[in-house]
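Pasting two entries for a bug report.
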Amino acid sequence: MGVRAEEAIGRVPGQALAEWLTRHRWFAASGHGVPRVEVPVVVPVPGRDDLAVAIVVATLPAGTREHYQVPLVLGDARDVAEPVAVFGDLALGDALVHPHAGPAFARFAQEAGRAEGTGGVVVVDTAGSPGAPPATATRLMPGHQTHSSIVLDDRLLLKAYRRLTPGTSPELEMIGFLSRHGFGSVPPLRGWYALQSGTLDATLGITQEFIPGATDGWTRVLALLRGAHGSITGEMSGLGAALGRMHAVLGSDPSDPVFAPIRKDPIEMEIVVATIDEDLRGMFAAHGDDERLAPLRGCEADLRALVAERAAVDDLGMAVRVHGDMHLGQAIIDPAGAWWIIDFEGEPMRTVRDRRHHRSPLRDLAGLLGSIGYACSVTRAMGREVPDEVASAVRAAALDGYFTAVDPALLPVGDRGVEALLGLYSIEKLVYELRYELAYRPEWVGIPAEGLAGVLAAA
């Protein structure tokens, strides 16, 4: 080839790289202007002149800095989609979407060892798993916001984190703990790769077993609500039970300093209430005249009062590490009807420190119930009737499955405390979703708005 990938990376104009970053969904600061970029770390893939891992530091106009992993390939310009730069007949582009570079990069990320480069080292750990045969076919999974996932021969899933955070990723911590403690409803961990550098030490990606033929929970529930064959209440009971078992495992090891359950401090509820209160004030101040928020017009004071009321419970139960972004899309169901819980990165709008924070397991349950409500609303918007009694039955099935499986010692004592906390976290989730929809999916703003109005009406 004559030119190595790392040499080509050094020739890319900063403006071109910055504009390329902003065109991708995984670039978290889209809409905040074109950043100033630098590439302090470039690690060539051993044995491949055409592949390298670049760590790009993007400094936003506001002054904040974000780190991104960008695996790059230098190849025939005809094979490189959306190139970063073109050098005659060659082009530099994203290795994970390249037809030939994908398998080579996946193989690199699976084989134990280390690769040294300019500014840092990439270390691959196989988590004690036997070496897998080299992947011959890869395909990119669609639709991810914070990472890129590629399937290897329908047997492994490589998840490459795009925006990087310092230290071990919360997802790697969670999956490792659950696997070590025998939780059977998470795809087994098969390894990870990480960056060590003067700029940043961070998890770059993980490899898990791929569950062939699985359908994500959102797609499955929409199909069932439209009348597809299957028992939606039975399947929601199974998903609720899987979530309950997961929480029981997460609260099972008091000897682990990272995961040991702790008694919830009432002061934390004051923080939760204050945070929701602040979000509500800011949202109404910025969007109070928005017609899409018509169901909530004049309801700000009532919502804040309801939040305070739901938080006024004596026993808060225990706090554990939780999924943090639990919804139907974070679970998959295999052809045998077994549920698997996936994607433990946490809510993308929250800090990593916040994602690691111990919380009531009821927060995850509220996320799941809210997602079921979303699915019912979307189905109705598509012209299919979902009677209120059906929506209530689906919700009840998920609750029954959950409370059958979870360790009751983690929950508040008595139904009143459980109902109050579950209601509080349901409001918190709806407010979060409303802020998210206003920022990223304006066509869906009405769903959480109507959900909050429904909570008020029920109260």
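Entry 2 (this is the one that rendered wrong in the viewer):
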Amino acid sequence: MKRISSRNTFFAKKVLPVVWFGFLMLFVLIALTGSGQRFLPFLLVPAGMAVFGFFLMKNLVWDLVDEVYDCGDYLLIRNRGKKDEVALSNIMNVSASLLLNPPRITLRLINPGTFGREIAFSPVREFTLNPFAKNQIAEDLMVRVDQARSKRPV
């Protein structure tokens, strides 16, 4: 059993939002306690950043599962104390997103599991200076899913 999801998922899902929204609240508190007539921009900018940050995290971070383990012919997926085993033959599509931080791999399932029809996780990332480098975990999963589907009875 090999972990293929990043260990930074906890940081991205839990710590980063606290730091982001905490910094914005601190900025608002400083603007409210400071003396001056023109504090409205100091309230509107953090409000806009909070809305932007919320939608960005909702669509790119909070939907990531906590852990994904490669167990040979299936993947063990853990999220919020629940776990599910997804057979490679049950995966319809593997897609890897480039140029996102954190990087994502999305698995689309034939039959929905515990976590729904789509499962997204942040893979372990090898150091590279090439921002367009393909993710080896995604490439390996694509090949293995194709092999598993070709063995599946139609």
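Dev reply: Rendering is fixed now. As a check, the viewer should reflect this: Helices lie at 9-33, 41-60, 136-151.
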